[in-house]
Design goal:
By secondary structure, the chain is mainly α. It has eleven helices and two strands.
């Protein structure tokens, strides 16, 4: 019991997230008093998700980088580059210019790197066998297999897609809300994360509720979005490559 108690204490030893004067600043909207930073983060996330859903940035990416959306792999690269802008660059600019805050307060740092590295590695070891089962379910491999390419390309495209998403959901939004509403922010940020997966295989969309909570806890525990971003990249890259292997084996 002593070892389990120590493990529980270690896993729950997240850092404090005390609000500063900027986090406490409020505005009154028709009598409704709102925290400025948390409100901006929530509204920005909603707006940027709508832009991403409608693919508004994709045409600009196609023109800027000369990528023709003629294959699933090309489409994924266009979407990934778009998310670097929408989910990475734009939130970073909002933190600096509108929230007038330091990016390190939003998870852009190593944080508790020992815990982050260990927990991310354990998470990947747990998830990879589950992925091998999932890709054999109807529709799962068929969805991801067309996105496959050379492993390096898959990892690069996946990293450009999910690491900005981790900054977006669990950096920009989570850490703004943590200092406003406390740890329930982990639950709140899981909701838009889950809805952003609509259109993907049903098994995956349902699993995002649990996955979002775990990633949120990991970022809360370590004070960084890096470790959830790396774990997410490994798991999703493996999903794409395993799906392609299943489809090739069936053929």
């Amino acid at each position: 019991m002593t070892a389990l108690r120590r493990l529980g204490t270690w896993m729950s030893a997240g850092p404090a997230y005390p609000p500063d004067d900027g986090d406490r600043r409020t505005m009154s909207l028709l009598g409704v008093v709102l925290p400025v930073r948390a409100t901006i983060a929530l509204l920005a996330v909603a707006f940027l998700l709508l832009l991403d859903y409608h693919g508004r940035i994709n045409g600009l990416i196609e023109t800027a980088f000369g990528i023709a959306p003629d294959t699933a792999v090309a489409n994924m690269r266009i979407e990934a580059l778009g998310r670097v802008v929408l989910f990475g660059v734009v939130p970073l600019l909002l933190i600096l210019l509108l929230l007038r805050d330091r990016p390190t307060r939003y998870g852009l740092r190593l944080g508790d790197w020992r815990a982050g590295l260990a927990l991310a590695a354990i998470g990947c070891l747990v998830m990879l066998p589950i992925v091998l089962v999932a890709v054999r379910t109807p529709g799962f491999a068929a969805y991801y297999a067309p996105q496959s390419a050379a492993p390096v390309d898959v990892v690069l495209t996946t990293a450009m897609d999910v690491i900005p998403a981790e900054l977006f959901f669990r950096g920009f939004l989570l850490f703004a809300l943590l200092r406003s509403m406390g740890p329930v922010a982990i639950v709140v940020t899981t909701l838009p994360f889950a809805f952003a997966h609509l259109g993907k295989p049903e098994l995956e969309t349902m699993s995002t509720l649990g996955g979002g909570l775990i990633y949120g806890w990991l970022d809360w525990r370590t004070g960084s979005v890096l470790w959830s971003g790396l774990a997410h990249t490994v798991i999703l890259s493996f999903t794409v490559l395993a799906s392609a292997a299943v489809v090739a084996g069936a053929g």
